[in-house]
Amino acid sequence: MKRTFQPSIIKKNRNYGFRYRMSYKNGIKILSRRRKKMRYYLTI
């Protein structure tokens, strides 16, 4: 039986990457919240 988690960097970046987040109004809100919290990583 195969494991359920089969990681793909391309798929991950397309859904959670910086450019994806910047392309939506709510995504920009996510980034600003993470900046406010002083997160070391804004996106994956």
How far apart are the first and last residues' alpha carbons, in Å? 29 Å
Mean pLDDT value: 96
**Overall tally of structural domains:** 1
CATH architecture: Orthogonal Bundle
The CATH class, by name, is: Mainly Alpha
Computed structural class: mainly alpha
Detail the poorly predicted runs. Answer: none
Strand composition percent: under 5%
What's the number of helices? 3
Organism: Candidatus Johnevansia muelleri
Family: Belongs to the bacterial ribosomal protein bL34 family.
Keywords: Ribonucleoprotein, Ribosomal protein
Protein name: Large ribosomal subunit protein bL34
Q: Which features would summarize this protein structure in a list?
A:
3 helices, 44 residues, single chain, 0% strand, Helix Hairpins, 57% helix, mainly alpha
Descriptive overview:
- The chain is mainly α and 44 residues long.
- It has a single domain (10-44), classed as Helix Hairpins.
- Helix content is 57%, strand content 0%.
- The mean pLDDT is 96.
- One of its GO terms (molecular function) is structural constituent of ribosome.
- This is Large ribosomal subunit protein bL34.
